[in-house]
Design a protein that fits this description.
The chain has about 230 residues and is of the alpha+beta class. It is about 15% helix and about 35% strand. It holds the Pfam family PseudoU_synth_2.
Length: about 230
């Protein structure tokens, strides 16, 4: 990914809202691969011809194989206030996922208990409270189905590591491409069929609400389904 590839949804003095492609890191790690955060800094430096370091605060993350909307803070004030919104769960976050097989119920709420173990990149999930586990809750709605796949809209009510991935797999419907959670399907670019497609929050310095929506990339398996069947928040 380069600066030319960056898709900017919104920018003002305090915010930069962009699309993260699947396979791109939100923040740099030990791999040394390019990250969305670094690309965002380069984009701002180029646009405003800033020779020195550019401040850009990462206030939330998407897993590497996930696509969707990411908001960065351009000021420390915005970063602090957005972090409070994420921590207090006043942010509206809606995801789309393509999962294997048809779900038994067209909508529902899932409650599990997730345990993250040191050195293990997968989380362990339980149906009852377990030692050092955290409660995980999400609600889902099936938007469309094929013979053996479902397009599901998901809202998370807690913010646990790999929550959507683990919870959907726990009920027998892994997200397509998610080998960590037992999907047998392989997608390009290290992707899984999970997209953070809606994000709503209060502007950190102005008395107004912001809402963003961006559909998944126009590629398989998303092209199996009709965009108009996705409901807005």
């Amino acid at each position: 990914m380069t600066i030319a590839d960056l898709q900017v949804l919104y920018e003002d003095n305090h915010l930069l809202v962009v699309l993260k492609p699947a396979g791109v890191l939100a923040q740099g790690d030990v791999t040394g691969d390019v990250s969305l955060l670094e690309i965002g800094k380069q984009w701002l430096a180029q646009k405003y011809q800033k020779p020195g370091n550019v401040f850009l605060g990462l206030v939330h993350r998407l897993d590497r194989p996930v696509s969707g909307i990411v908001v960065f803070a351009k000021t420390s004030k915005a970063a602090n206030r957005l972090c409070v919104q994420f921590r207090e769960r006043t942010i509206q976050k809606t995801y789309l996922a393509v999962v294997e097989e048809r779900l038994a119920s067209p909508s529902g709420t899932l409650i599990h208990y997730i345990q993250k173990r040191t050195g293990n990149r997968r989380v362990h999930i339980f149906h009852e409270p377990h030692d050092k586990s955290d409660r995980a809750e999400l609600s889902y709605q099936v938007l469309e189905e094929t013979a053996d796949k479902s397009l599901v809209q998901v809202q998370i009510h807690t913010g646990r590591h790999h929550q959507i991935r683990a919870q959907l797999a726990a009920i027998g419907h892994p997200i397509l491409g998610d080998h960590k959670y037992r999907s047998l399907v392989q997608l390009a670019n290290r992707a899984i069929a999970l997209c953070a497609f809606q994000l709503g929050f209060s502007h950190p310095t102005q008395p107004r609400e912001l809402f963003f929506q961006a559909f998944p990339p126009h590629e398989w398996p998303w092209t199996l389904f009709s965009k108009y069947k996705v409901d807005k928040l």
